[in-house]
Amino acid sequence: MVSGMSIVTQKNITAAGDVVAGNKNEYILPRPTQLELFSKAYKDEVSLNQCTSQILDELTHYRSSKSDIRDLATKLSEAGYDHIINEAEELKENVAKLIIKNQHYKSAQKIITYLLSDIESIFNSKIKPKLIPNQPHHELNDILRENVELVICEKLGENVLDIYNRQMKGMVYFLTGNCHLEWT
Q1: Burial profile 3-23: b = 16 or more Cβ within 10 angstroms, e = fewer
Q2: What burial class does residue 116 get, using C-beta atoms within 10 Å of its C-beta: 0-12 exposed, 13-18 middle, 19+ buried?
Q3: How far apart are CA 12 and CA 61, in angstroms?
Q4: What is the CA radius of gyration of the chain?
Q5: Distance (Å, whole) CA 136 – CA 22
Q6: What is the pLDDT of residue 13?
Q7: How crowded is residue 166: how many other Cβ atoms within 10 Å of its Cβ?
Q8: Could you state, in order of their start, the residue ranges of all structural domains in the chain?
């Protein structure tokens, strides 16, 4: 016996599984999320300088305006949100620049498309029902923060494209301006 511990010696052990002496700790890691896989692919593409000139069809869908010709300012005004038009226009433009900046990497396009799709779904299911005409700016900001910024930030993980709250909020306005979201 060594320091209060007994030593057991066994020979000719046949086991269908693991044989351990003492405690066996198993750690099962969760599967990587879609965004984690896209982030890894992005880092690989950048390091290998694998650029593309093709734009994903789904990203083209979000970049293009639907047949409705009302612009962002008109939509926000009609919904009683005149007080956020300047900020919304600025943030929408920032997202357009983000897309252009990252359009040469297929995985970056996938990350942006994934986020736009997710924000479209979140807006229609969680945000739109909470909108009230002439809602104070701070209340709208709280709704967007709770339902978009916090949710998307948690999903971003490593955040290889440096997408922050302003861009996340801007994606709402980008989608609105391109007729993918209705506020009324």
Answers
A1: eeeeeeeeeeeeeeeeeeeee
A2: buried
A3: 65
A4: 25
A5: 62
A6: 66
A7: 14
A8: 35-177
**What is the amino acid identity at position 158?**
E
Q: How many residues does the chain have?
A: 184
For residues 34 and 152, is the Cβ–Cβ distance under 8 A? Answer: no
Find residue 2's DSSP bridge partners.
5
DSSP-assigned beta bridge partners for residue 5: 2
CB 120 within 8 A of CB 180: yes
pLDDT at res. 26? 82
Quick one: pLDDT at residue 8?
62
The pTM assigned to this predicted structure is: 0.82
Q: Of 6 and 46, which is predicted with more confidence?
A: 46
What's the distance, CA 75 to chain centroid? 24
Task: Render pLDDT for 82-141 as a digit per residue (tens, 0 to 9).
Answer: 999 999 999 999 999 999 999 999 999 999 999 999 999 999 999 999 999 989 999 999
The letter for the amino acid at 149 is E
